[in-house]
Specification:
single chain, 326 residues, alpha+beta, five-stranded mixed sheet, 9 helices, 23% helix
Length: 326
């Protein structure tokens, strides 16, 4: 007989785990593993990364899930390698090769790369790949693709803020391009790689994809699942960043006790503040995140609020100052 599975005793956990997602794991599998390691009650991720991709995947726990949409909308920075001279069914190394072409020296001169780099910088239109989670008639596109069906997809507007293309040699003897790109939400890097390959006239597919930044949260701040697993359980919570780490781009407003209590009840507060569309609101004593709002005409309007219980749990989970010794 199998030994009974030990039930994990869940607990309220509030914060953000900046995970360096490993290769081959889906974003949801990574989330479930981290949730289990932290014994967290409530968790969500901030937009998915392909199993083929590695890098920054912010995972939100407890109160931080209220702000996960902000990361969905934030600009992202990726590093990718596009192997030239071959296109695949999926736009990456997972798919079958559709076509092979010779890569001619004149297709990859510095001048040609500079022209293509300029062509794909700024607002562009992309046709989403068939191997994506976008839905058509209630079914994900990848489900159609697996059944060998191609459906019409409308081109979408995205913005490439920064693009850098560099010719590199790989161990596959084929020339390749290193792509470093900062882009708006909704950008498919596989499609960008394919489109760059098409513009060069030789075709391309991605063999490597790594997200190195999302909304100012860089990969250097991330932990891996292996590191999290190796930590003594008591230390795992210390790997989390506070929920307000998602609010670095927000204007900060601090309210005194009475105003903080009224704001937490959903009541607008008046003050000598400039208009702002994104405000992180803190209490003064105790110093705690209350929620987010916006300011219009000197009025602070609540948008998303933490509950008093969430605030209490966050404060109780914070390291206590050491007692003063005489």
């Amino acid at each position: 007989m199998h030994a009974p599975r030990t039930r994990v005793q869940r607990r309220p956990v509030h914060g953000v785990l900046l995970l360096d997602k490993p290769l081959g794991l889906s974003s949801n599998d990574a989330l479930q593993k981290a949730k289990w390691l932290l014994r967290a009650e409530k968790a969500g991720h901030t937009g998915t990364l392909d199993p083929l991709a590695t890098g920054v995947l912010p995972l939100c726990f407890g109160a931080a899930t209220k702000f996960s949409q902000l990361q969905l909308d934030a600009p992202k920075t990726y590093e990718a390698i596009a192997l030239l001279g071959a296109t695949t069914t999926t736009g990456d190394a997972e798919g079958d090769v559709v076509e092979r072409r010779e890569v001619l020296p004149e297709q990859v001169t510095p001048e040609r790369l500079a022209a293509v780099q300029q062509q794909f910088t700024g607002p562009i239109r992309q046709v989403p790949p068939m191997h994506s989670a976008l839905k058509k008639d209630g079914k994900a596109l990848y489900e159609y693709a697996r059944a060998g069906v191609t459906v019409e997809r409308e081109a979408r507007d995205v913005v490439i803020h920064v693009l850098k293309l560099t010719l590199v040699q790989t161990d596959q003897a084929q020339p390749a391009i290193k792509i470093v790109v900062t882009c708006s939400k909704g950008t498919y890097i596989r499609t960008l790689g394919e489109d760059i390959g098409a513009a060069l006239g030789c075709g391309a597919h991605l063999t490597f994809l790594r997200r190195i930044d999302t909304g100012g949260l860089g990969v250097e701040r991330c932990v891996t699942l292996a590191q999290l697993e190796a930590m003594p359980e008591a230390e795992r919570l210390a790997a989390l960043e506070a929920p307000e780490s998602l609010l670095a781009q927000h204007m900060r407003v601090t309210l005194d006790g009475e105003n903080a209590a009224r704001f937490l009840s959903g009541v607008r507060r008046r003050g000598n503040w400039p208009d702002a569309s994104a405000v992180a609101v803190f209490g003064e004593s105790p110093p705690a995140l209350l929620g987010v709002g916006h300011i219009v005409g000197g009025e602070l309007v609540p948008d998303r609020l933490l509950s008093p219980l969430e605030i209490q749990q966050i404060l109780e989970g914070m390291p206590q100052p050491a007692p003063h010794t005489a």
